[in-house]
Amino acid sequence: xPRTVYFLNGPNANLYGLDSSGTYGSESFASIExxxxxxxxxxxxxLDFRQSNHEGVLVDWIQEARLHADAVIINAAGLTYxxxxxxxxxLAFDGPIIEAHMSNIWKRERFRHHSYxxxxxxxxxxxxxxxxYRLALxxxxxxxxEEKP
Length: 149
Ligand code: DHK
Known about the structure:
Elements: E1 3-9, H1 29-42, E2 45-51, H2 55-68, E3 71-75, H3 84-91, E4 97-101, E5 123-126, H4 129-147
Parallel strand pairs: 1-2, 1-3, 3-4, 4-5
Helix pairs in contact: 1-4, 2-3
The site of 3-dehydroshikimate has 9 residues, from loops.
């Protein structure tokens, strides 16, 4: 039975590849998802990849993950730095949690240097673009194996 991973993306992630600053690379969000889906299949994971611009929707999905997912990967995007509700929902989740960012948030503005998500995360990956997303999948595959061989 494949293990299920919720990969939750926050506000504006749907614009990756379209933003002229180049901060998030040139690959579209749909293409990033497609590559993650292929990688998850290779790792034997069932991937549920979602994006919302709304904090409450993300909280609902994290709560849903308690019942339906073995691991959560989350890029809460701009909500990373402000959302206590997302932190509280993540703290109520039992399995591995990987915080992922496309950009190296520590190289950027100071307001991006404090993450509420990190307080609940098993590990953090940042600065590697969409490669980091695939590394996050590889990390949860390993962590789930360690948890329940
Ligand atoms: C994505 C965003 O949309 C920003 O708000 C964050 C994160 C960084 C990322 O690098 O993926 O500050």
